[in-house]
């Protein structure tokens, strides 16, 4: 299967997750089996999804196979403003992060090669109309698809290495917010596609005994660069105030860069019996690369305040100053029979966003994640994998005083509370 | 692969939605009154308290007066006033004294003052811009000002009277030591009900011309009050370029002795000698308002230079030994100077200087600021003596004029019209500005009375109205 046909397949989907399953807007939904086990996988060689979690483990995956998984992420964000009153939420958009893997190699050989397609970063949120933060954000769609040709080599029977070329094959950003015009509310939409960019995903896998395995992996940062994205407006005045107000909104193109940060992970796998597999992972996402979100416009835009009017500036810069975020994961798989395996797991993800920097596009917070899953082998070759993930963000409050202290008053004070539900299902075919 | 996705996605989504049926709940913080008693709230003050905006008192802006907003927020504790009455105009005359609008004049957005219909003496009248004004056609006996439709209800809870000063509120206040001045000023304060149309309309006919404001507010029995008085004891003088109107005894800078006497009297009256809780607000530095910072010397000088390259600057007429001099950036021009300069070309030559009433020169600025500070010291001490909170609006407004004020990501500033906070008269807040003021009051009240009254969302209130 070529990259092009893979992309066509992916293009049929709404690809992204509602800030699902890892810090910031990272999405840690690499494979259905792994999702059921709390997202572990760096120290395991379960299936072809090793290409995502640890390319080094691919050579240790016994069978060749093709597998696909799809998830339906449903986020529930509640927001309560600093002024009290009714809490607002978001419209319930279902987004479908997916993963696809095909891995091949000679039987009993030392090599294995494959291709992976997955969605490592994304966010889709649409806030209720007239919510307090409407002038910061009303709607965001951030999508990315990585395509990753991968090769893995077993140097010794206990040690293997692997590397993949990560290609940001598809990236899209759509940001919308209301404009507080003196004539009433307007609306602005920024929409752009990211240029194709390249990175890498490498890993080492070590399996000294049948009972123990370990791995490290590193996926590099890719900058999603949008050039010549479209800027569109609605609600600008057309009559008496048009000349005064609209000169602030002459831009029709924008460019911006969003880092999709690097991730370093270590993991351990323990197999005390033939039936039981336990995985432990720790990963660090280098979110500190995300320092500010800067836009350059082809004309006037941004929050120029020199004459007190909105607009009227060709650039805008919004502080992020994210911090590197750790995550700890644990999960297990128990083979009930030759056909049935059940899984459970949990993880704790630390937030990438510091106090006073929480913005509506990623209402991030420390998260507790609980997962469950099962696989059923229908035939010798074909199996079904199901997973369910529940994610509970700790309640997070920031005050206007914190925003003022940090110079981050381009977002709102208030309290966010988010829960995410991600059922998923996959098929695997091994031979 | 597509097949799998197409078949399973709806089922997955359905499963997820079923499981995700409930929105996570955030418990709202509980509102409480602390040691304050909001069951009967009364607001004492001037135009700022009345909800005056855009150069007039009219129902729409009045509905967003800070006392109305405070009463609304007090009610959220469950122990607020049962109702809070504002002296509105009747629906047919909802635009009260009329208000300035931003209109397109010669291709530029310009604030336009409502004026009577065209007549032989006033050929350019604009028929009050079509507003439903409440003028009766009569003139007040004490001042010749236009009479407004009388307020017919019982004594309201918002007792704000546009134009009133401490000196004009208390018929015993004036204590300059000059008997003739004191007699005249005290007499005018007693007769204030036939001088000021906004006060006259509140008073029953029998009280007009005899009952001073202190006596009037003493009729209320509040359990909580706000008092924001004293602004006009410096503002009237300042906005007229520090030129005293000989016919108006309240047009000067009020001296500290008279102010102290009147202010103590007002607070003692409304607080029942310190037994009723409340807040006293002090006087913001009037030189920070758009009225003095919109028409700048630099901008006028640049306009003159564009017409005549040899123009040396802006000539102003000032008090002192050199009656005409070139203005510097330390001299403040009034908002009203713009139209006057445009009509007369004043200021372009030494023989046609900008009259003093359009200029608050550097020396006058110092005088006004010093007096403001003196009066604020009296306000702070009086609040302390009556055991009530002090809202330091001077510091608050200084912060706004220097750094602006962000409300839920919206940048507001002291910029004229487009800054959202100040209305088209350049002096009084917009509804957004009043919401911000109400929140500052609430912050002070919560702090002093250990209460937790929720604040209002200022973005729900408009700034200056721009035509579409």
Automatic annotation (TrEMBL), chain A:
Keywords in alphabetical order, please: Cell outer membrane, Membrane, Signal, Transmembrane, Transmembrane beta strand
Membrane topology note: Multi-pass membrane protein
**Alphabetized InterPro entries for the sequence:** OMPP1/FadL/TodX
Recorded GO molecular functions are:
long-chain fatty acid transporting porin activity
Q: Where in the cell is it found?
A: Cell outer membrane
Pfam families (alphabetical): Toluene_X
For this protein, the record's Gene3D superfamilies field holds: Outer membrane protein transport protein (OMPP1/FadL/TodX) (2.40.160.60)
Per the record, what is one GO cellular component? cell outer membrane
Cleavable signal peptide: 1-22
Q: According to its UniProt record, where is this protein mainly located?
A: membrane
Annotated family: Belongs to the OmpP1/FadL family.
PANTHER family annotated for this entry? OUTER MEMBRANE PROTEIN NMB0088-RELATED
Instruction: Write down what this protein is called.
Output: Outer membrane protein transport protein
UniProtKB/TrEMBL annotation, chain B:
Which GO molecular-function terms appear in the entry? hydrolase activity, acting on ester bonds
Looking up Gene3D superfamilies in the UniProt record yields: SGNH hydrolase (3.40.50.1110)
> What's in the keyword line of the UniProt record?
Hydrolase
Pfam assignment, any one:
Lipase_GDSL
Instruction: Kindly indicate whether the keyword Cell inner membrane belongs to this entry.
Output: no
Please name the PROSITE patterns in this protein's record.
Answer: PROKAR_LIPOPROTEIN (PS51257)
Q: Which InterPro entries match?
A: GDSL, SGNH_hydro_sf
Is Nucleus found in the keyword set?
A: no
- What name is this protein filed under? SGNH/GDSL hydrolase family protein
Q: What species is this protein from? A: Hymenobacter cyanobacteriorum
